[in-house]
Predict the structure.
Amino acid sequence: MPLFALANAGLAVGASTLTDAVTSRLAWAVVAGLVLGKVLGIAGASTLALRLGAGTLPEGVGRRQLWGVAALGGVGFTVSLFIAQLAYEVPALVDTAKIGIFAGSLISGVLGALLLAGGDTARVSP
């Protein structure tokens, strides 16, 4: 499904489009939402649930893995691409949002992979 969404995103990536996106508050807001918002929301809610005793982590899963999986939550871009089409009527804004979505997804994927590649399995204390 993600490959299909990427292939059909309809984004013409050129120098001017990338330059506009790098200087756009819209693109940076989308990146921040995908990277920071997803990580803090998923890991924060999970940590809160653990501290309240609403659940436990599986054996061998620690703090680093929790944050790594939370970071991977920012990778899902298919719905974000659909919402960008609905949210903006100006094609240049749609393209800028799409670049932010792809950048945020890429950063989230790399961050998640780096966190999951580490060996820290320190348990999250309830």
User: Anything to note?
Assistant: The chain has one domain: 16-117. The radius of gyration is 17 Å. Residues 53 and 83 are 35 Å apart (CA to CA).
